[in-house]
Amino acid sequence: MEKYDLIIIGSGPAGLSAAVYGMRAGLHLLVLEKLPMSGGQILNTYEVDNYLGIPGVNGFDLGQQFRSHADKLGVEFLNAEVTGIECGQTASFTDVLQGELGAAGRPSGPDPKIVHTDQGDFLADALILATGADHARLGVPGEQEFTGMGVSYCATCDGAFYRGGVAAVVGGGDVALEDAIYLARFCKKVYCIHRRDAFRGAKILQEKLFALENVEVLFDRVVTSIEGEGKVERLLWEDVKTHKAGSLDVDGVFIAVGTRPNTELFRGLVQCDP
C-alpha cells in the first residue's frame, strides 16, 4: 500500500489548486479523479467572464490551463473512483508500511487515512476532499428516461445538436441564463422557464437575455413532465400562482436548477451541514 503525505480527491479547480500548493510545499501527493478529464464543472461553462485577468475565457480552455499548471509541477494523477475512506486506530505508519496492520487491519498513529478505490488502496497523512457537485434534477416524469435523448444538463456540451430547433432552459440562476444566451445563438427559439417571478442570476446576464428576440421568458412556471416518442417532443408546465397548465413543443430541455454536493461518501467521516 503506497503512502503519501497528501491525497486529493477530485481534480476540479479546487483540487488542482490544492495540488499546485502541495507540490510547491514539497509534499508527496496524489490526485484521484473518477472522470476521464480534470477541470470539473468549469469544463461545461461556455464563457467565464469574472475570472480576474482572463476576461471572456472559454471554460473548457481555462480548465485545461489549470490541469496544465499541475502537470508542469509533476503532480501525480490517477483515474480512479473512491469507494471508501478509513481513519486508522490500531497501528503505526511503520507497521502499515511493513505490512503489519494488526487484527483490525487498520493503521493509526497520527490519524492516517486509507483511501479505498476501484484501482486499489492508498495511505495518506492527510486528505483534501474536493469532490465538487453534480447537477440537481427536477425529478419529473420523463427526465431520466430522456436524459441524452433531449434532456441535458450542459448547453455547451449538447447545444449544437439543436441548431435551428426549439429548446427550453429550466432555471433562473447564472447557469440557466448563460445557457439560454448560448442556445439563442443557433436555436430558432429558446424558452426560459423559471418557477419564481424574477431571475436570481447576475444583472448583466439578465440584460443580455432580455435583449434577445428569439428568447421567451416564462416566469412562475414549473415543468411537470417531459414527453415524447423515443426523444423529447414536448414539456408540460404549470403556473404556480394560477395553477393553469400548458405545454410547449420543444426539441430539447436543458435543466439548470443548481447542484448537489458530492458528500455522501464522507457523511460520518466529517461533519456536514444540511
What this model shows, in words?
The structure is a single chain. By secondary structure, the protein is an alpha/beta fold. Helices cover 19% and strands 30% of the residues. Strands 3-2-1-6-5-4 form a six-stranded mixed beta sheet, with helices on one face. Strands 8-15-9-10-11 form a five-stranded parallel beta sheet, with helices on one face. The two termini are 35 Å apart. 34% of the residues are buried. Mean pLDDT is 90; it is low at 89-109.
Put the structure in a nutshell.
The chain is an alpha/beta fold and 274 residues long. The protein contains six helices and 16 strands.
Features:
alpha/beta; 274 residues; 30% strand; 16 strands; five-stranded parallel beta sheet
What would the average pLDDT be, to the nearest integer? 90
The sequence of SSEs as H and E is EHEHEEHEEEEHEHEHEEEEEE
Low-confidence stretches: 89-109
What fraction, in percent, of the residue positions are helical?
Answer: 10-25%
Layout: helices, strands, pairs:
Layout: E1 2-9, H1 13-24, E2 29-33, H2 59-72, E3 76-79, E4 82-87, H3 93-97, E5 113-117, E6 120-129, E7 133-135, E8 151-152, H4 155-158, E9 166-170, H5 174-183, E10 189-193, H6 203-210, E11 215-218, E12 221-227, E13 234-239, E14 245-249, E15 252-255, E16 259-261
Parallel strand pairs: 1-2, 1-6, 2-3, 8-15, 9-10, 9-15, 10-11
Antiparallel strand pairs: 4-5, 5-6, 7-16, 12-13, 13-14
